[in-house]
Amino acid sequence: MKNRETLLSLIFLTVALSILFAPVLLRGETFALGDVPDQFLPWRIFTAEEIADGRIPLWNPYTFCGSPFLANMQSAVLYPIDRAVDLFFQPEQGVGIGMILHLFLGGFFLFLLARSFGASELPSGIVAIGYALGGFHAIHFLGGNLLTITSSIYLPGHFWVVHTLRKRIEEGRGIGLIPLVGILLAVLQVLSGHAQMTFYNAFFVGVFFVLNLIQMKSGRLRLIGILSGIALCAALLAAPQILPTLEYSRHASRTGTLPYLPATEFSFGWEFLASFLLPEYLGTRADLYTPLRADTYWGDWKNWSAVYIGLLPALGFLSFFIFHSPSPQGGEGARGRG
Q1: Residue 59 pairs with which residues in a beta bridge?
Q2: Residue 56: partners with Cβ closer than 8 Å, 6 or more residues away
């Protein structure tokens, strides 16, 4: 019964994404917004052509008088998901297909995380859809911030690895293939191409790890050892991307200390707090694609970021703390499961 409900939840997520992005799936359209036509699509085409000709695209002859390409982390030359998509689709269509695939993966990872916290299949499916189609991802579609989406979706997967390892260690159960999953997700995180999001995810995973460590009654050293091994193996496997990027970054204009104003130019203003509950309080670029045909956003900076989490995720988050309680066996459970 549980497997059936899990399958139905994932089918529901798939159907929701398919309906929303039907033009991409059925007519081969792509997301020609923001950085996609200006940067990511030309890079994707260049990468596909070079690999088809049997060359690893180390150098980009079309920018300036030539510039490093693979070493530029955002080129994501070694990202296996992009390369796999390019085997079956032209780059113009593959960009859109890849973004939809990543939204599904993000929802799937959050589904697993919610289940590991004791939520039943239905609420887990709801939060999965809320995460995949939430304000953060939606607004980055409009900005054409492809890598922000493809990198951010791994965070719930990392959380799931940490939390599942903790539970199995405390319960005295085998850890199975969880460390291998952790290594795979960490490598994909690095190769996905967005250094900032990789750093943010690493920070929050570190905080989540410490919180789990504090709550553990036994097995702390084992958890530390396993996660350290995961990090080391992932770093070694991702070294073909990490090492060239580190060498290249020494010559970047942002290397070193930035003045205060450039360092804070992307920061949220106080007015953004209202958008936690009112997503269009500051207007929205989405009105460009409505009968208004105008960008109604009036905030300090481009609305490439959004803090609106959605009504259903907000209610689900609150209900978790209201109805969740430890099970009599000492594990985690929830009252009133669906």
Answers
A1: 68
A2: 50, 70, 77
Residue 56 tokens, joined: 């690893």
Residue 328, SS3? coil
Q: Are 141 and 29 in contact (CB under 8 A)?
A: no
Q: How far is CA 214 from CA 47, 130, 209, 329, in A?
A: 45, 29, 9, 20
Structure tokens belonging to residue 188: 């994909």
pLDDT tens digits along 166-220: 999 999 999 999 999 999 999 999 999 999 999 999 999 999 999 999 999 889 9
Asked if 152 contacts 134 with a C-beta cutoff of 8 angstroms, the reply is no
Outline where DSSP puts E strands in the chain.
Answer: 59-60, 67-68, 324-326, 332-334
Distance between CA atoms of residues 241 and 268, nearest Å = 31
User: Could you give the CA distance from residue 60 to residue 265 in angstroms, rounded to a whole number?
Assistant: 29
Which of 159, 152, 144 shows the shortest CA–CA distance to 102?
A: 152
Domain boundaries, the chain: 2-26+96-248, 270-330
Q: Is the pTM of this model over 0.90?
A: no
Place of tokens 């990872």: 109
How large a percentage of the chain has pLDDT more than 90? Answer: 49
Q: Select from 326, 330, 310 the least CA-distant residue to 318.
A: 310
Please give the C-alpha separations between residue 287 and each of 34, 134, 291, in angstroms, as whole numbers. Answer: 15, 17, 8
d(CA 317, CA 127): 9
- C-alpha distance from residue 279 to each of 228, 262, 325 (Å): 39, 26, 32
**Coil, strand, or helix at residue 304?**
coil
Cα–Cα separations (whole angstroms), residue 241 to 68, 139, 184: 12, 28, 15
